[in-house]
Sequence to fold (115 residues):
Amino acid sequence: MSDCIFCKIAAGEISSKLVYEDDRVIAFEDINPQLPVHVLVIPKDHYDHIGDDVPEDLMGHLITVAAKVAAIKGVDKTGYRLITNIGEDGRQTVIHLHLHVLGGAKMPLRMGPAD
Ligand code: AMP
Ligand code: ZN
Fold:
């Protein structure tokens, strides 16, 4: 998609702090980190979110890469969260499928609705 910021990052048209790259996937530091470790894992091809007919092997690869990223960032033993926001209620702001790898601190217990 021509006006998609993550497509532009995947194409190298917008710079990012690269953490991992292969032929199908790129991982880079979130520009506004919410925790000491906050990396985004995205497919190079554009899908809006996980409900956008993403091939299962690509979805599996994204999750495998997320685990690899956690190891690269040194949080694989201490633990981390893998989050993908979908749509308005999920507060997705960038409409290009991405997994957040979040770690480096204890997460809040609560995962319910906003206050
Ligand atoms: P979401 O709310 O799940 O759509 O998350 C989008 C994430 O993308 C946010 O955490 C933003 O901080 C991050 N983000 C937006 N633009 C960039 C960028 N140019 N480089 C890195 N991360 C970005
Ligand atoms: Zn895109």
